[in-house]
Amino acid sequence: MRFPQVVPEYPVWTPSRAAAHPQWRGLAERTEADGRRCSFARTGIFLGLKALGLQSGDEVLLPAWHCAALVVPVAKAGFTPIFYDLDENGRLDPARLEAAWTSKTRAVLAVHLFGFAEDLAPVRALCDARNGFLVEDATQAYYLAQDPVGDLVLVSPYKFLPAAEGGEYWLKDGFGPAPAPPETTLTGTLKAFLKDAYHIGEASFAARRGGLWQWLFGAVIRLRYLGRPSPFQVHSKAPANAVPPTADDLPTADDLMEKWHVAPRAPAKWSARLVRRAPPGAGAEERRANYAWFAERLEGVSALPDDVVPYMLPLFRDEPGPVLARLRRASIQFQRYGLPPWPEMDFAAFPNAARLAHTGFQIPIHQNVDAAARERILGALNG
C-alpha cells in the first residue's frame, strides 16, 4: 500500500524545530486579558453577535468571496446573511459595501484575507454613521501592525499551530467582557485529546515528520486502511481535468451547516494547552521566508509588506484545473477559498468574487514547508 509524502496545508507537530520570534507575537495573546477562547472562531461569531444584541432577522453583511464557515454561524444564530462584492484584487471596496447596506443591516463582517491587513477606517466610519457593528475577522492574520478596530474581533491560532481546534474572540471596550462559552466536559476533553493525538500523528506520518511519533502512527494508519484506498492515495490520484464545481455539485445550506457546525463551547483543554505552549511568534519568520522564495520565482506574486505574516500564498490562473491536478498528483494540499460559496448567494451578482473564487487557489507556506517541499510545489506549479 502506497502512502506518498504529503505537503500539508497546516503545520504538523515538530517541537524540536519550533523557534520563537517575539517580534511577531500572535494576535491571540490579547485574549489573555480581553477575550475568550472558543472551539473555533465561528463559535466566536455566533456568541459575539448575540452579545452585541442582534435580533432574529437582522442583516449581517458578508464578503461574497468567503469561506462558508463565516456564513454558518450567522445563519444558525437566526440572522440574515447579505453579501457584498470586493474589488478586482479581492480587497474591500467601501462603495460596494455601502451599496449593500439596507435599513435592516446591523453588522458588517470584514476579513484580513491571507494575513494581509485591510484598511478598515472607512468601514469603521460607515458603521459608526449607520449605527452598525463592525466584525473584524483576523482569523487569517497571525499579526496586525495596527490595533484592531472591530466591535467584535476574531482570531484563529489553530490555523498557524499544530492544534486540532482553537479560536479566540473579544468585544470592543464598552461592550463588557465577551461571554464565556461553556467549558468542555471531562468526556469531551478526553475525546479531544484522542482526536488531537490522531490528528497530529496522521499529519506527522503524512508529512514524514515527528520522529518516533511518525512511525508509531504509521503502523496505526496502515492497519486502518488495510485493503482499501487511503486518503493519501486518493489525494495523489486526482483526475487530470480537475475543475471548479458546477452549480449542480454545490452542497446545500444544510450540508454546510453540518460540515461547519457551530460548537458553542470552550476549546478542549488539550488543544488550548498546545496553543498556549507555542513559542511567541512561532513559525512567523519561516512563513515570511517561504512567501519571499515563491515571490522571486513566480509571476504575479506581489512583494510581501514588512508588517505581514502570511497565512497562505494566494495564486490565480485563468484555467486552474491542470495546475490543481498536478498539485494533487504531487500530494500537495491546497485550499480553494470561496468554493463552495453559500448556496443561497447568486455568484452572478458578484462578478469579482466569482472570478476570484474560480481562478484562485492557495498553497501552504507554513513553518514545515522546507526547501524540498518548496521545490516540489514549484515543480507542480510550473508543470
From the spread of the alpha carbons, the general shape counts as globular
CATH superfamily of the domain at 27-171: Type I PLP-dependent aspartate aminotransferase-like (Major domain)
Q: Helical amount among residues, as a percent range? A: 25-40%
CATH topology of the domain at 27-171, anyone?
A: Aspartate Aminotransferase, domain 2
Average pLDDT, all residues: 84
Helical element count?
A: 14
Structural class, by secondary structure, is alpha/beta
Query: In CATH terms, what is the architecture of the domain at 27-171?
Result: 3-Layer(aba) Sandwich
Low-confidence stretches: 234-245
Report the span from N to C terminus.
27 Å
Portion in strands: 5-15%
CATH class of the domain at 27-171: Alpha Beta
Strand line-up in the sheet with most strands? 1-7-6-5-4-2-3
H-E string? HEHEHEHEHEEEHHHHHHEHHEH
Q: Tell how many strands the DSSP assignment holds.
A: 9
Biggest beta-sheet profile: 7 strands, mixed
Q: Which value, in Å, is the CA radius of gyration? A: 20 Å
Summary tags:
383 residues; single chain; 12% strand; alpha/beta; 7-stranded mixed beta sheet; Aspartate Aminotransferase, domain 2; two-stranded antiparallel sheet
